[in-house]
Structure formats: C-alpha cells, structure tokens
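Pasting as-is:
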Amino acid sequence: MSPSARSRKQDRARVAAGQNHEVRYETKKEGVSKQAFKETVKDVGNSRKKVEDALDQ
C-alpha cells in the first residue's frame, strides 16, 4: 500500500466536524441535527466509527 493510499484510509476513519460537506453528509446519513452531530464529535472524539455508534444509540 502506498503512503498516499494509507493516508486516505486514515482520513476516512476520521470525521472533520469543521468541514461543512462532512457535517452535511453525516447529519443526513444519521438523521440528526448539525448541533447533535457536533456535540457527539466533541463527546466521543473524531473517530468515524465512534461517532456513528454513538449516534445509532
């Protein structure tokens, strides 16, 4: 695996709550408000898996 491929994989594993396009995508996907999404990221960190698991509860 090339370094750039590894970087992209690691990037997808994280949520960038400061980037509007990622916030829009995740809030639509999870059916939550922007505020709820950002609070969840603040509570559990920016791991995409942890955020999605917390929002699914």
